[in-house]
Design a protein that fits this description.
Order of helices and strands of chain A: HEEHEEEEHEHEHHHHH
CATH topology of the largest domain in chain A: Lysozyme-like
Order of helices and strands of chain B: HHHHHHHHHHHHHH
Radius of gyration of chain A: 19 Å
Largest interface: A-B, 92 and 61 residues
CATH architecture of the largest domain in chain A: 3-Layer(aba) Sandwich
Strand content of chain B: under 5%
Number of helices of chain B: 14
Number of domains of chain B: 2
Structural class of chain A: alpha/beta
Oligomer: heterodimer
Shape of chain A: elongated
Number of domains of chain A: 2
Largest sheet of chain B: none
Strand order of the largest sheet of chain A: 1-6-5-7-2-8
CATH class of the largest domain in chain A: Alpha Beta
Number of strands of chain A: 8
Helix content of chain B: 55-70%
Structural class of chain B: mainly alpha
Number of helices of chain A: 9
Radius of gyration of chain B: 32 Å
Distance between the termini of chain A: 54 Å
Chain lengths: 267, 379
């Protein structure tokens, strides 16, 4: 039942990226893809608020065009949302390095960005994940960095599309550096605090899906969230709100930096 | 499929629970001003003590030092109504009187008379005993109504010489009457809550039919509702007004009034029906819906033995969820009709022509509805 691109999950995880599968993504697609010849970079032109407000649209489509509308979504916090392992309507008419069948031959990545002035520059964490993710996909397929194109470069007639809103040659240079191994390795979030307050043990990094005493403590620090010791979707959304307030990466993961800010806020 | 319809039901129950919680909060606010329960309590006490005008024993009882501390100001008898009016006004009276306080005060009045204030400086008699009480009650000069005299004497008779038992007898008598007060109050509350629920549903445009359709179409909305349901059930107590409002907001339901949602012509019937459904459901009360939600969540946990991670397919859903609005389905079923096959062929030819960017979006995904992520953290 599954379509071909199910390998994307492990490849992205191995690249040190945050990966969130949507329900039944392996079986989503307008049929299967053909031989993959590259990756097309898009931005969603979606709303300004939230981490990936366009996700539902990518999965289900919009009036006049059924979803999936891309294989991958990229949230503002650098999380890759797995949308479809099959064919998605993302490319339209166009050409890149002789390949004209965009939807059949390219993996489409839709990154969350309004595409207009209110959302520039892109968050570092998102742009970094974008390059690492594309490099990981190309690396798995054995393709060079030049196999990655912006939608605005692919789409014909030229000027039909403006996404993504960043310079593709700079982007490709970054992808090439990662592929050649000259780039710095990805920065992972520590699994626990490096040092603890006197008389306390270092607190573990918490994320959605964890349960227990420490989650209850977190929920008390977060305020406005039910203290039930269960790190669910609502708690995660609340963590993101707090992280935005204190200018941290709003990824909903409570690592050393977020713990520190939460402590400071409660004093 | 069964899980989907169960989740839809859970979504509706969550909505009903939240709406009825809000309605109860409004009802409590009204009660805080009107104090209907206090009015019923006063009415019941006047009937118990056979004091129709509220100037005899009932007045003495309310002004007794043991009771007057339970409410502010002086006792003013309320106007007597034939029936327990749903919006009876009991301002300045206690909503609850402990049974023991009632019994103590009544015994004290029987033993020492009605005098309070300055006149109470010359109280007569020694310690209260069964014998002294009986003597005073049998004395026709004691200012106490015939019915109360009878009840008090009976309480003494059945106490077998034990003053505590006599007190307990009076408490039982009081508690029986309080059951009636609770009944009156409950009926009044149901009427008021229904009216409130109608106002809330119409003002908030909370249309059950539209919400059910929304849950039916939108997988993410159903999931969000189930997540909320879990967070409601887990603490073991129903959400309060603030939590209810927050959850209702997070669910991003198609409620509230905006221009495009104004119904046209015959749609009004559906809309009004949807409102009435919501209002009736809300009248059943938050405790009822909380109870139902708990039971349904237990059923859900047996249908779905463990919370599966989103990337594994559930056994009961072997095909990807078909989009409800789906004009052309290229992934055709086993035996496609010619029309479907043609549509599929057309779609296959067109599928390289289609793209998505830069179009206005119809629905936006809330952070709480995003799927769970892994990776990015050191192991």
């Amino acid at each position: 039942m599954s379509f071909s691109l199910t390998w994307m999950k492990d490849v992205l995880l191995q690249a040190g990226l945050k990966v969130a599968p949507t329900e039944a993504w392996e079986m989503r697609g307008h049929g299967d893809v053909g031989t993959i010849r590259g990756v097309l970079c898009h931005h969603t032109a979606g709303p300004r608020t939230g981490n990936m407000p366009s996700l539902t649209t990518l999965v289900k489509g919009r009036p006049g065009l059924d979803g999936p509308l891309a294989q991958l979504g990229l949230g503002r916090d650098g999380t890759f949302y797995l949308v479809a392992a099959g064919l998605a309507y993302h490319a339209g008419a166009g050409s890149w390095q002789g390949a004209t069948t965009g939807n059949t031959s390219f993996i489409g990545v839709e990154a969350e960005n309004t595409g207009i002035a209110n959302d520039q520059p892109w968050p570092d964490v998102q742009l970094d994940a974008y390059q690492r993710g594309v490099a990981a996909l190309l690396g798995y397929l054995g393709l060079p960095a030049t196999a990655c194109a912006g939608h605005k470069e692919f789409a014909l007639p030229h000027g039909r599309k403006i996404d993504p809103s960043f310079d593709m040659s700079v982007f490709r240079a970054g992808v090439a550096a990662i592929l050649s191994g000259t780039a710095t390795p990805p920065e992972l979030i520590s699994a626990r605090e490096p040092t603890a307050a006197p008389g306390a043990t270092p607190r573990a990094t918490l994320r959605r899906g964890t349960k227990g005493e420490l989650v209850s403590k977190l929920q008390q620090l977060l305020l406005h969230v039910k203290v039930d010791g269960d790190f669910g979707g609502i708690t995660e959304a609340r963590v993101r709100v707090v992280q935005r307030e204190v200018a941290l990466v709003p990824d909903g993961i409570v690592g050393p930096k977020t713990w520190q800010k939460l402590d400071a806020r409660s004093h | 499929m069964s899980l989907q319809s169960l989740d839809l039901a859970i979504g509706m129950i969550v909505v009903f629970l939240l709406v009825s919680t809000l309605c109860s909060a409004v009802r409590e606010a009204i009660e805080a001003v009107l104090k209907t329960r206090a009015a019923y309590l006063e009415r019941a006490i006047r009937e118990m003590l056979d004091d129709k005008d509220g100037d005899g024993l009932a007045k003495t009882l309310f002004e007794h030092p043991l009771l007057s501390g339970l409410f502010l100001g002086d006792y003013k008898p309320k106007e007597e109504k034939k029936v327990a009016w749903v919006l009876a006004n009991g301002r300045g009276l206690p909503s609850y009187i402990p049974a023991s306080t009632f019994a103590k005060a009544l015994l004290d009045i029987a033993a020492r008379g009605a005098a309070i204030g300055k006149a109470a400086n010359q109280l007569n008699g020694g310690p209260i005993t069964i014998e002294s009480l009986r003597a005073r009650l049998l004395n026709p000069q004691t200012p106490i109504s015939a019915r109360a005299r009878r009840v008090l004497l009976h309480a003494l008779d059945t106490a077998r010489g034990d003053l505590d038992q006599a007190k307990k007898n009076l408490e039982d008598w009081f508690n029986d009457s309080m059951d009636r007060v609770s009944g009156w109050y409950k009926r009044s509350t149901q009427w008021i809550v229904f009216v409130i629920a109608v106002v809330v549903t119409v003002m908030g445009n909370i249309d059950s039919i539209a919400i059910a359709k929304h849950f039916y179409r939108d997988d993410a909305a159903r999931q969000a509702a189930v997540i909320s349901a879990e967070s409601i059930v887990k603490p073991g107590k129903a959400p309060n007004k603030e939590e209810a409002r927050q959850i209702l907001k997070q669910l991003e339901l198609p409620i509230g009034w905006t221009k495009p949602t104004l119904p046209q012509g015959a749609e009004w019937y559906n809309r009004v029906l949807g409102w009435l459904l919501t209002a009736f459901a809300a009248t059943l009360g938050a405790p009822f819906w909380f109870d139902v939600l708990n039971k349904v969540m237990v059923i859900r946990s047996t249908v779905k033995p463990r919370e599966k991670s989103p990337d594994e397919a559930s056994e009961d859903r072997q095909a990807p969820p078909a989009p409800v609005v789906n004009a052309s389905a290229p992934a055709a079923s086993a035996a496609p009709s010619p029309a479907v096959a043609n549509a599929a062929a057309a779609a296959a030819a067109a599928q390289d022509e289609l793209d998505c960017c830069g179009v206005p979006q119809t629905e936006s995904t809330d952070d709480a509805q995003l799927p769970q992520a892994s990776g990015g953290v050191e192991s």
